[in-house]
Amino acid sequence: MRPCRKTPLAQNNVAIGFQAMETNVGGSNNVSVGYEALYANTSGTQNTAIGMFALSTAGTAGDNTGVGYNALQANVSGTQNTALGSGALSANTTDWNTGLGYYALTANTTGFAKHGRGCICHVCA
Which residues does 3 contact at the CB level (< 8 Å), separation at least 6? Predict the structure, then answer.
């Protein structure tokens, strides 16, 4: 395991897992646990990503919490989102959303300030 990349702009980060927070150069106060969690984070701050691919494309996104496989996976710049569950908010690109449960709000790409709970069946919108 390699230590977290620390630059004058990237401080107080924790990365555990293969390629976790791999590209971080300016983001601070982040926690990533899991394979490629917060992988593409370059300058996002105050993010918590726990699970394989959680917040993996979050380049400048900040103040997000993604817990679960693929949680907030496509969230490049959205802020203040919370995703708890496998695939929750996985396609999200907007702000202020909460998805709780298996694939909750998985296809959300335009709405903001939404709240959704996970699917009971495997047909999700």
Answer: none
